[in-house]
Each structure stands twice: as C-alpha cells, then as structure tokens.
Design goal:
The protein is α+β, with helices and mostly antiparallel strands. The protein has one domain: HIT-like (HIT family, subunit A, 2-Layer Sandwich), CATH 3.30.428.10. Helix content is about 30%, strand content about 15%. The protein contains five helices and five strands, in the order ααβββαββαα. It has a five-stranded antiparallel β-sheet with strand order 1-2-3-5-4, sandwiched between helices. A hairpin with a 3-residue loop joins strand 1 and strand 2. The relative contact order is 0.20. The model has no long low-confidence stretch (mean pLDDT about 85).
C-alpha cells in the first residue's frame, strides 16, 4: 500500500471548530447577485458553487435548514435533495460532458466535514486524468474557468435540467 503524507493538512485537523457564521446559512440568506455563488433555489434546498472547487463545476446542494445530517432533516428535504441532485447531474453532463460524477457527504469532523453543523452534498464532475502533478507536487489545483463563468453556464443548464415538473424554485 502506498502512503501519501499531507503535513499541510495537520493544522486543519487540530484547529478548534469555528464559531463564525455558517457559510451555508449566509449563502441561503444572501441576495442572488452576480457575485453570489448560489445557482438556483428550491423549496427546501439550494445549489451553489464550491468556493474552493476540486474541478470546474464542483457543486454543493444544501438544505436551508441548519441541520448536521440527513437523519436530522425532514423526509421532504431529503427527497428534494435527491431530485435537485439529479437535475445537477443532467446540467453537468450537458455543460461539461464529464466521464463520471462523484457524489459525497462528509458527516462529522472525523469524516472531513469542513462545516460540521450544516450537511451538504458535493457533486463533482470527473474526467480520466483530472489529477496531475500540480496537485501532488505543488499542492495546487488548476481550475481553468472563473467561478462566475461556471455559475452562469450551470445556472442556465440547471434551469433546463430541472424542467417544469421539478417543483417551484424558491424566490
């Protein structure tokens, strides 16, 4: 088995939890302007871009409710999250044509949750060879598209992917 040492992550592991405002609650309550990372809103959940994406098109689906896990959410919130996730998959395939898509949640600090108190789902488009030497040797990701360009491209595609029968988006 190979081992990859990542000493730069140690400070993250030992730092105390932040008392700052929840980034998801802040995004949920902020207006939808050109500088917003929020792409689309539904009744119980919203879609936003990851501020520190793994790849272009790295989306997050988060409930408006400030809850730590799907077990603490309502059935309606969980059900809608899966419908929103399916729309995100369709939009990502339309815009970026990925060869695969990762879906994932990190529940709790030990699982890698950066925001423990507000669960969210990561949706990442993936391509063969999308990791390279820059990630490994320079600890840097190469993201060729600006977030606001990604936002506009995915906002329009997500509107088409959600379709008319997908539930009313939240105003």
């Amino acid at each position: 088995m190979d081992h990859v040492f990542t000493p730069w992550r140690y400070s993250y592991l030992v730092q105390p939890p932040s008392a700052a405002e929840c980034v998801f609650c802040a995004a949920a309550s902020a207006p939808d302007g050109d500088d917003s990372l929020v792409i689309r809103r539904w009744e119980h959940n919203f879609v936003l871009l990851n501020l520190y994406p793994y790849n272009n098109g790295h989306l997050l689906v988060a409930p408006y409710a400030h809850v730590a896990s799907p077990a603490a959410a309502t059935a309606a919130q969980r059900s809608e999250m899966m419908e929103v996730t399916a729309a995100c998959e369709r939009a990502l395939r339309e815009v970026y044509g990925p060869e695969g898509i990762n879906l994932g949640m990190n529940l709790g600090r030990a699982a890698g949750a950066g925001v423990e108190s507000h669960y969210h789902l990561h949706i990442l488009p993936r391509w063969f060879g999308d990791t390279n030497f820059m990630t490994i040797t320079a600890r840097a990701r190469i993201i060729p598209e600006e977030l606001q360009v990604t936002r506009v491209r995915l906002r329009d595609a997500l509107g088409r992917a959600a379709g008319p029968g997908s539930g009313a988006p939240r105003a």
